[in-house]
């Protein structure tokens, strides 16, 4: 089996036609670092080449699925990272190149000819929701949560899957509020295929995976291609390009720079507490004035 630094993948010991991809940074809530997107893609490509495998389950080790990007270092410190550039002027194409690559890596779950199932416990939030929504199917614990809180400030979901999964009205509700929904609501809205009590999550996921695994690989590939083609015809790739550009802008416009300066002075936890509390986010000239004040204190 291939070995990675952020995840594990192998064939299920009980059912060899099912691959288990486990995000494995439990001490960081399986947060996405620079290595994880490429390792997800490499793991999917390994499963793609294994003719015995018909379906891939992706899940998280520890307390949850994935807490999003591991942003504490980038937000709190003055590091010159492609996605958190301190240099002036900001180079949007450097930012875009990195985030577009991450998006393409996550989308390997969607492009793979074999069905992919996200098994979600705990939370799949921010960039973690991008990973989950790139999967074909989602099974959630009823008390699990999913959402993209950085839409309030400092983020735009680069995979742009919310509209394609939920439709425009509910996608707008999620994007405008930055709220999370639990597994019950996700199933009610059609985002999750099924929501079950946490103790039943493994059994429910395996029932679905085993049912799919009994279908010939060629049939699965054809049916997935037909559905995916509808999404492509609706403009998925073009929408993702726009979302990835906007993601970089959200981190470098006045509001995004205010959020970063606040995190640098008060800590990332304090910054996300403000972001998620519903308090108004400083914007425009107010944000610029706060940035100048923070800079003078440095």
Order of helices and strands: EEHEHHHEEHEEHHEHEHHHHHH
Distance between the termini: 49 Å
Poorly predicted tracts of residues: none
Mean pLDDT: 95
Rg, Cα atoms, Å: 19 Å
* Structural class by sheet pairing and helices: alpha/beta
Helix content: 40-55%
**Number of DSSP-assigned strands:** 9
Structural account:
Helix 3 packs across helix 11. A six-stranded mixed sheet has the order 1-2-3-4-6-9, with helices on both faces. The protein has a three-stranded mixed sheet with strand order 5-7-8. It is of the alpha/beta class and 298 residues long. Strand 1 and strand 2 form a beta hairpin. 51% of the residues lie in helices and 13% in strands. The chain is built from 14 helices and nine strands.
Summarize the structure.
The protein is of the alpha/beta class. It has helices spanning 36-49, 72-76, 92-106, 108-111, 127-133, 161-166, 168-177, 183-189, 201-213, 217-233, 236-252, 254-266, 268-277, 284-297; strands at residues 7-11, 18-23, 55-60, 116-120, 123-125, 137-141, 145-147, 180-182, 194-196. The chain has a six-stranded mixed sheet, with helices on both faces. A three-stranded mixed sheet has the order 5-7-8.
């Amino acid at each position: 089996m291939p070995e990675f630094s952020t995840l594990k993948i192998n064939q299920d010991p009980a059912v060899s036609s099912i691959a288990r991809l486990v995000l494995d940074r439990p001490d960081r809530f399986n947060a996405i670092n620079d290595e994880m997107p490429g390792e997800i893609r490499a793991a999917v490509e390994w499963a793609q080449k294994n003719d015995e495998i018909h379906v891939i389950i992706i899940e998280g080790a520890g307390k949850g699925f994935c807490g999003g990007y591991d942003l504490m270092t980038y937000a709190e410190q003055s590091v010159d990272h492609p996605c958190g550039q301190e240099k002036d002027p900001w180079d949007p194409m450097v930012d875009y190149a990195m985030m577009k690559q991450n998006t393409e890596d996550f989308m390997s779950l969607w492009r793979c000819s074999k069905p992919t199932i996200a098994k979600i416990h705990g939370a799949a939030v921010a960039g973690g929701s991008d990973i989950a929504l790139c999967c074909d199917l989602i099974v959630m614990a009823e008390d699990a949560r999913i959402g993209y809180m950085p839409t309030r400030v400092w983020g735009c979901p680069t995979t742009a899957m919310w509209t394609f999964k939920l439709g425009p009205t509910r996608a707008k509700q999620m994007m405008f509020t930055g709220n999370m929904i639990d597994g019950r609501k996700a199933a009610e809205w059609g985002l999750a295929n099924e929501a079950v009590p946490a103790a039943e999550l493994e059994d429910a996921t395996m029932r679905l995976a085993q049912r799919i695994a009994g279908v010939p690989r060629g049939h699965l590939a054809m049916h997935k291609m037909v559905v995916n083609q509808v999404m492509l015809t609706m403009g998925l790739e073009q929408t993702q390009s726009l979302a990835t550009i906007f993601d970089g802008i959200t981190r470098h416009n006045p509001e995004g720079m205010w959020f970063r300066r606040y995190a640098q002075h008060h800590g990332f936890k304090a910054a996300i507490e403000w972001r998620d509390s519903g308090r108004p986010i400083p914007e425009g000239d107010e944000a610029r004035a706060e940035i100048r004040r923070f800079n003078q204190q440095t």
